[in-house]
Design goal:
Alpha-amylase family glycosyl hydrolase, binds alpha-D-glucopyranose, 5-stranded antiparallel beta sheet, GH13_cat_dom, hydrolase activity, hydrolase, GH
């Protein structure tokens, strides 16, 4: 059963979901205590951000041991208990996997620094001599995704000038060398370790990374020697071959590749099951842009017979309720886009807090923790603030201690408990949408060859579509004026209709 083709995944950003032990940081027992909520919400699977041993320079994306749980989140028993309980609630559990790099505190990297140039220890990473007088310049001009050079020089050594090591992210995240067979063997061990414990799959971080075009290897990607090299597909085939020994497990890639043809290569028959599209999250609230993003992704995955998977937000981008505009307009648009996302054929990813319509938090500089992100002046902290559960509790029920990021006052009216009681809340909208998606016959499409979606004619600034073979129509109005509804009975509307018309910033499902 290919359960993941149509599944709704819920991303738990573990530090910000629920804290069970009062240290102000979310943890595994905290998640376990919210499984009732997640079942009520109606999600099919969780995606947990990294729970592995880490010095937390990048909130767990810098890993010292891929097969150990950091004590801040809990321990292996807590993982086992969480998986067992989630399964009892009918919810699957997928975990983040970070194969591109380790922490600079990983035993391998420490051993590399302590070993001579050319040693097997160094070969697990990318060490190169510098350029220029005394090797004082980086080996090449590559930039890190977080800003600055992608190379850092190791501390001076007795044997001569230190080498430089490659890090596509922060200097605390040295890149592994994917031409080294030990690196492959270690990932295979990690996959089996977690699969044997019962995880239902992996979200693979920077799945278009890993292999690089260094040292004059001919380029295979159009324009970026750091990412999307042909060799990475061998890594995904290896991952898939391992997963295929375990029934019903899924590999999902965070594939940051814009070119549709190259994107599709990641979801060929013997590679990843799903690749998360990022174009929808990058689109403005504009029917043309949204439609183009949808078409691009559907054409790409359709060309190799894979299912699409849709994401509006995650822990790296501004939340929809802020991104699409400030105040009530942003909220209305985020609600409308949720209906678009959840009507599309394929899997969907929700990011914790989006079901509450949380806006980004405007944090004072001294409260910010994301030190590694240098895209403009923004950090990613604004979308990572802890989840509000209940207005009357200290820290809104997130923790009994001091939350690791301050929770803004305007989250008080967005608590889950209050929203569950309010039929007009964003949480109620999500719950209803997920229920209809699961149960309404209008969503059930018989398998059919050809395009997964049909577009209808729509006024300028609007779009309307249905999943091929179903009766469910979704219409979105991004224009400044109300427009007539397409034919059908409205099942769910993201905001009030205006005299039987679909108002601006609103979406509707009809059957
Ligand atoms: C991915 C993660 C991001 C992290 C980076 C480095 O882009 O989503 O949060 O900082 O990888 O691991």
């Amino acid at each position: 059963m290919q359960w993941w083709r149509d599944a709704v995944f819920y991303q738990v950003y573990v530090p910000s979901f629920t804290d069970s032990d009062g240290d102000g940081i979310g943890d595994l027992q905290g998640i376990r205590g919210r499984l009732g909520y997640l079942e009520l919400l109606g999600v099919d699977a969780l995606w947990l951000s990294p729970i592995y041993a880490s010095p937390m320079v990048d909130n767990g994306y810098d890993i010292t041991d891929h097969r150990a749980v950091d004590p801040v989140w809990g321990d292996l028993d807590a993982v086992d208990e969480l998986i067992a309980d989630a399964h009892a609630h009918g919810i699957r559990v997928t975990v983040d996997l970070v194969p591109n790099h380790t922490s600079d505190q990983h035993s391998w990297f420490r051993a590399a620094l302590a070993s001579p140039t050319g040693s097997p220890e160094r070969d697990r990473y990318h060490f190169r001599p510098g350029q220029g007088v005394g090797g004082a310049e980086p080996p090449n001009s590559w930039r890190s995704v977080f800003g600055g050079s992608a190379w850092t020089r190791e501390p001076a050594r007795d044997e001569g000038p230190g080498e430089w090591f490659l890090h596509l992210f922060s200097p605390a995240q040295p890149d592994l060398n994917w031409t080294n067979l030990e690196v492959w063997a270690d990932l295979d061990k990690t996959l089996r370790f977690w699969l044997d414990r019962g995880v239902d799959g992996f979200r693979i971080d920077a799945a278009h990374g890993m292999c690089k075009q260094l040292d004059g290897t001919p380029p295979s990607s159009d324009d970026d020697p750091r990412f999307d090299q042909d060799a990475v597909h061998d890594v995904h085939r290896m991952i898939r071959a391992t997963l295929d020994h375990y029934p019903e497990r899924v590999a999902i890639g965070a594939v940051g590749v814009r070119n549709a043809t190259r994107f599709a290569r990641y979801v060929r028959q013997d590679e990843l099951h799903l690749a998360v599209d990022t174009q929808l999250a990058a689109s403005r609230f504009d029917a043309e842009e949204v439609r183009a993003a949808i078409e691009d992704c559907l054409n790409a995955v359709g060309s190799v017979g894979a299912a699409a998977s849709w994401l509006l937000s995650d822990h790296d981008v501004s939340r929809p309720a802020s991104r699409y505009g400030a105040g009530p307009v942003g909220t209305a648009r985020a609600r409308a886009m949720a209906l678009v996302q959840l009507a599309l054929p394929g899997a969907a990813y929700l990011y914790n807090g989006d079901e509450l319509g949380l806006p980004d938090a405007d944090l004072p500089d001294e409260a910010r923790r994301d030190a590694v992100w240098h895209h403009g002046e923004d950090s990613r902290d604004g979308c990572r603030v802890p989840q509000p559960w209940e207005a009357d509790l200290p820290a809104y029920g997130f923790t009994t201690g001091e939350p690791w990021l301050p929770i803004p006052d305007d989250y008080a009216v967005l608590g889950a408990a209050e929203q569950l009681e309010d039929t007009g809340s964003t949480l109620s909208l999500y719950r209803r949408a997920l229920e209809l998606r699961r149960e309404h016959p209008g969503f059930q499409a018989p398998p059919s060859p050809g395009p997964a979606l049909e577009w209808f004619g729509a006024p300028p600034g609007c779009l309307a579509f249905r999943r091929t073979g179903t009766t469910l129509v979704c219409a979105l109005n991004t224009s400044p004026a109300p427009v007539p509804l397409p034919p059908g009975d409205p099942l769910l509307v993201s905001g009030p209709l205006d005299d039987g018309m679909l108002p601006p910033d609103t979406a509707v499902w009809l059957a």
